[in-house]
Amino acid sequence: MKLKEIVEQLNLEILAGDTNLDLDINGGYVSDILSDVMAKAQQGDLWITNQAHQNVVALAFFRRLTGVIITDNINPEPEALEKAIEHRIPLLKTQQSAFDVVGQLYQMGIRGKK
Asked: Measured between alpha carbons, how far is 65 from 73 in angstroms, rounded to an integer?
């Protein structure tokens, strides 16, 4: 599934990385603990979190994640947005909770890795 399909179906706000919405989603990972994401998220995963600082973007770039969905209507810090734009990391936002987003992604066929 392409990231742009998820953006459309979940009505996500695109904050950065709009030129990379044709990327394939290989799976998903949800966590607000950066060390968990560092250890367990895999290249091509879509990360769901309520963290909104520049380390989120750095980690998404380093792990080669397809994008980041920030939940609960949280706005990213200005530095995070700047880094996402600079590195063309799709940074997306929703008013929904992480729980609801993950449920919808699961229904769309996106799964986590074991």
From this structure: 21
- Residue listed under structure tokens 């936002």: 93
Residue 44 falls within a domain, yes or no? yes
In a domain, 38, yes or no: yes
DSSP state of 15: E
pLDDT tens across 30-83, in order? 999 999 999 999 999 999 999 999 999 999 999 999 999 999 999 999 999 999
Asked if 54 contacts 79 with a C-beta cutoff of 8 angstroms, the reply is yes
Owning domain of residue 43: 3-107
Q: Hey, which residues does 15 pair with through a beta bridge?
A: none
Position 112 in a domain = no
Contact call for residues 94 and 102 (beta carbons, < 8 A)? no
Total number of domains in the chain: 1
Predicted TM-score (pTM) of the model is 0.96
Residues β-bridged to residue 29: 47
Residue 101 pLDDT > 90:
yes
